[in-house]
Write a structure and sequence with these properties.
The chain is α+β, with helices and mostly antiparallel strands. It contains 4 helices and 8 strands. The protein has an 8-stranded mixed β-sheet, with helices on both faces. The chain binds coenzyme A.
């Protein structure tokens, strides 16, 4: 296996699917720190996410710093519905303390839907794979029993990441994307 084994600290307080809220905590990999989202990251993250190519498969366009601040405010506040949690982390390199992307999970009951985005300048070094593997480990250590992702059929890099994180592709297409499950 490539570098990047998950290091989950303070693991395993099982989630009571009906009442509990999952809260993002910091975790790490060999090369990365996964930091719970803060609104203050918006200005730097707007630069990280500024390449229109990043939105080829997911749709959307680069957010301005103000738009991202507003989005982060909503994400940090959460859905306000019992049994549902929005978990967001920015990805930081241990070597340079540089923000390079993000991972997220929407948890409903004991099912977590995950996604990942890495700034173009930092792609192709296995960082997204490393973060996704550790994210799945964190989620399962905190009570998730099913992890899913939606991946566009033509997005080979995301498919490779999903597979590396232990998800398998189903034949179910939802809004033009394959459902992957673990
Ligand atoms: C998806 C994304 C994070 C991948 O970033 P990345 O830096 O290429 O990812 P990694 O370096 O960790 O590589 C992941 C895997 O994809 C493979 N890969 C990368 N580019 C590829 C390509 N063009 N074709 C085929 N495989 C590719 C890598 O070889 C690696 O596979 P391996 O682990 O089996 O060797 C990045 O393209 C991105 O942020 N895209 C925009 C956001 C997005 O669409 N996110 C998906 C939402 S779920």
């Amino acid at each position: 296996m490539a570098s990047g084994g998950p290091a989950v600290e303070g693991a395993a307080e099982p989630l009571d699917a009906t009442v509990s809220k999952m809260i993002a905590t910091r975790f790490g990999t060999d090369r990365l720190a996964l930091l719970p989202l803060r609104v203050e990251y918006a200005e730097t993250m707007a630069k990280v996410l500024s390449d229109p190519v990043l939105y080829t498969f997911t749709g959307g366009e680069p957010p301005t710093a103000d738009e991202l601040s507003e989005r982060y405010r909503r994400q940090v506040a959460g859905p306000g519905r019992p049994g549902e949690s929005w978990l967001n982390w920015v990805i930081s390199t241990l070597q340079d303390d540089e923000l390079i992307g993000y991972v997220q999970a929407t948890v409903i009951g004991d099912e977590a839907e995950i996604a990942w985005v890495l700034g173009t300048a930092w792609q192709g070094r296995g960082y997204a794979r490393e973060a996704a593997i550790a994210l799945v480990a964190w989620l399962e250590a905190h009570g998730a029993r099913r992890v899913i992702a939606h991946v566009h059929p033509d997005h080979a890099a995301s498919a490779a990441i999903a597979a590396a994180a232990g998800l398998r592709r189903t034949d179910l297409l939802e809004d033009g994307e394959y459902l992957w499950v673990r």
